């Protein structure tokens, strides 16, 4: 590379150890990361910081084994502290090299390219100070560096505003999704549909038929006798529902509820049953990627099997927001079981399971689930009784299907907006790299 100068002419190594520091303040230990730069740390090799290297405002520090991924930092103006003696500490020569400009260069694609090229080692590569000195920095005058810094600061202000707007858009989109779900379970999205489908069977008759079917199964000893569910009082109704709908407990709708298997599973695909776990259901859509397997006996397969239209719900997790999250199983056939921190709800044909999943994601149901959550050793739990007692607004079957179709249509639009927002975020990151490349390019040729 021509039009460059080696860093050895622009930087100088710092050797000040904590024990030799003349300041009257107690120095705090810092580390370096590729995202936060110089940051406080509790990871110390020793309580005695005597051998640690002093960092002062304007000094650089980096871990020789991680600088290749951008783990280098510039000490802020208000920081005096120490870093591990395994780190390299150096400074830019005054009036020759602006520290902020050097940091941008070392984190740019060209800077990282040279770092990776000069790093030594077989198993783990490291960039020693002597290697750092060989880096070719663009031969930019000090005045040009000041211009670059001013330009970068102006860009950072615009870039920060853009990122703030992107974050704001994501918040608004999340709220929009929740509004869609809430209006769906209140019947607001299907008002026009109801006007043209006035002769559909009301939900009250649907509930009677479900109960009749359950009674038959209980008599035939195919289902256990059910506990009596609490009645829903008028004061306990969250909102008014359309004519033909009914408020009911979720336990009135499903035929059976089963916790998953606690058997150990592994990635050994020679075992006879694939086991669905939290990662397979946590996004709200069933995923059959990254499956683990276990061996189930014939009776265990019958107990933990999944049928089309079953609903899988997360019953325990460290994150409260995931407990109660659900997906419907829509596979025509498949040899799947499910893990113990999931529960399976099986519904009769009168209930459209995607509607149940949609309802469970709404704010009304989330409040019912999250409010009474119990926590054991940092794990949030919901049990079968609490799930059975959930209050759910039930429309006629045909309207359940219409609601799901309408929500899916609106969520497709939301997904397109989400993709556009993510594209904006990625574009902003690429724009920053383009700015740095443009800033250093005029004085460097290959």
Could you characterize the architecture of this molecule?
The protein has 446 residues and is α+β, with helices and mostly antiparallel strands. The protein has 2 domains: 4-139, Alpha-Beta Complex (Adenine-n6-DNA-methyltransferase TaqI, Chain A, domain 2), CATH 3.90.220; 201-395, DNA methylase specificity domains (Adenine-n6-DNA-methyltransferase TaqI, Chain A, domain 2). The chain is 37% helix and 18% strand. It has a 4-stranded antiparallel β-sheet, covered by helices on one side. A 4-stranded mixed β-sheet has the order 4-3-8-5, with no helix packed on it. Helix 1 packs across helix 2 (109-118) and helix 4 (142-185) runs antiparallel to helix 12 (397-440). The longest helix is centred in the middle third of the chain and has 44 residues, at 142-185.
Sheet with most strands:
4 strands, antiparallel
* CATH-defined topology of the largest domain: Adenine-n6-DNA-methyltransferase TaqI, Chain A, domain 2
Q: State the separation between the terminal residues, measured CA to CA.
A: 5 Å
Oligomer: single chain
CATH superfamily of the largest domain: DNA methylase specificity domains
CATH architecture of the largest domain: Alpha-Beta Complex
Radius of gyration: 31 Å
Coarse structural class: alpha+beta
> Can you tell me the CATH class of the largest domain?
Alpha Beta
